[in-house]
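Hi! If you just cloned this repository, the fastest way to understand the data is to look at a raw example. We've pasted two of them here, unedited. The first protein comes first, obviously.
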Amino acid sequence: MTVPGNVPDGTLPDGGPGAPWLHTSANHIRTADGSVWHGRGANLSDTRSCNACTYATASYPDEVMRRADELIDVWKANFIRLDLESYASATVGSPTARAHWQGVLDDAAYLAELKSIVDHIGAKGAYVLVSLWADPTFSQRSDVSEAGWPTAQTNAVLAELAATFASDPHVLLGVCNEPQGNFDGALDARAWAAMDSAVAAIRSVEDAAGVPHHIVAVQGTGGWARRLDYYVTHPIAAGGGANVAYEVHVYNRAADFPSLFVNAAQTLPVIIGEFGLANMTEGDVQVLQRRAEQLEIPHLAWTFHMRCPPNLLVDNSAGGCGVGMELQPTAWGQLLKNRLAIPW
């Protein structure tokens, strides 16, 4: 059976009634009825919690779900980027051994926790971008010129995630976090090839499972995911290029917005995967939110955490993992919360 990349009528391949699958059309992500999808919310750490919980004896998927509840029910987010975190060994960057550090290919309990969290978010009617954030399979270079790209090993991780969430219409998949360096674009073609290969790995799993193609977010080719210009003339080809979104991270002044996302959004479906009060003023953030809404670009603030700046939450954890702490917004958090309260 051939499964189309786009499922604009929201039905499953067998013709039966389906869940609200998203698809791309021209320069937008659209819902099953063809309307432009208005997704906005924040980044949410997984059970490793931006390294705050990696040393804890227990793992805390219920805490991640509690924070998702706060984001969705109280702050009114309908889109969450779930940031997946793993390391090459238990002691990377620290002399103390982490209790939780392996990726989804080596830690079945971790993968099961991610599935329960994603199911919980979906049951609340929100969409979730399941995205590799800290992952030892990304390319490593001390000069950062080719660092942060997906590799063949990353593609194996993405294939496992694609299989795990194959039938989940509320899931989008993020290839990596932030390709570094490459400020002049000299390595754009090689970065593009790495991204295209990653999308192909996901499509292979989906086609074998006979499910629609999920939205896959590929990240900007350099400058810590700030470069989308190469994709304008060289969109991803894997899977026919359908259901691919182009993710940019924005921690810049408003004068840079045209080159960062406004220009690309004229022809490409764009997701602003991160933005926040780091090198940006409140005015810059407000301009970004207005422009994203005007251009109908999904956007996600960084981050619903207390020690992973710029933080949306006050650190009420007493320096610990933060399980059960009061989820009190910082000034940055209150700014986002106020905006999410305004219908879009």
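Ok, and the second one:
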Amino acid sequence: MKVRRLSTTQADFDANLKALLAFETAQDDSIDAVVAGILKDVKARGDAAVLEYTNRFDKTNATSMAALEISKAELNAALDGLEANSRAALQAAAERVKSYHEKQLMQSWSYTEADGTVLGQQVTALDRVGLYVPGGKAAYPSSVLMNAIPAKVAGVKELIMVVPTPNGEKNQLVLAAAAVCGVDRVFCIGGAQAVGALAYGTQTIPQVDKITGPGNAYVAAAKRRVFGVVGIDMVAGPSEILVICDGKTDPDWIAMDLFSQAEHDELAQAILLSPDAAFLDKVEASMQKLLQEMPRKAIIETSVTNRGALIQVKDLDEAAEICNYISPEHLELSVEDPLAMSKKIKHAGAIFMGRNTCEALGDYCAGPNHVLPTSRTARFSSPLGVYDFQKRSSLIFASSAGAQTMGKIASTLAHGEGLQSHARSAEYRLK
């Protein structure tokens, strides 16, 4: 495995870093064309189109949408059928995720001005949310927890989950997770047709207000296209990890932390920053050694070779500067005083502090959400949270006195904008 080595002392470092981070996010025209056709068909024909595409793409032979809906009894049976350790782990993770997200709940508020005018904010939950969960071989019960629990904590009335079941293959852990989270309805559909069904509604599947959850390129393209009809969480790129280490952590630990993201897919990115050149050598040796025992060896090797890097920096302050440029999805601060260093980090999806805090803890059970901004979007966006399932309405109650004060201001500004009806509307209330 070839591991790219860079140093900030190189004259062309900035150009090399930019090239390393470059990821082609432009939508493939052929995928977009297919998705556009599927969405148009689902919008026009509803259940019939969803059923047709599901049978074609997932190699199923369902004759009705009812056959594709999983009952609450089947979800509960999946939970009851889990081996004891798996069930305990799933429930423990769910409790931790719930406990963390309960602290994110936004509250309504208001204040009264001296003249009796009341201003404020009313917070309400979305009515119905669609949760997309990958199915088949790429089955992630953790994805159910991270999307469903904050929605339920927010007070979403109904959660509709869609999960493809290629060749009728249902993942019992995914179904069990849906039971643990209290998902209201589950349908065995996936792809662009599932996104279309959630966005537009069909005879069987009700229209949702927002769609969250990861999927393949067709799902991502469909989410892009339906945004505006419904809300979406984000269009996520490949998984990323950036590790900053002072050179005092076991190199095997750091190598495996890098692998933990590289194993997701060939486009994933794993980068290490350290001021210690000898430590970078040790980590590279660990990577070469440990790669041989990895079941997903081929994926890791491709990911690290094409998009990974070991970068020598001048010091940890420079590492923080580079981190803020990279704006990684996952950031590990494997240093002596991670709390102090975290204050220098402005842009990162999630910050894992200390030598014992591997990124994998965040993926499954630490509590914070693992749905995070990728591709440098942490510069302007945040992890999925309860906030994404709540919305705010402004509250304005003008007292009689307040109408006099504000009415004059509004009238003057409205005339300045040439909007006489606005001005007169305010002036009617002046005494």
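That's it. A detail worth noticing about the second one: Residues 243 and 272 are 5 Å apart (CA to CA).
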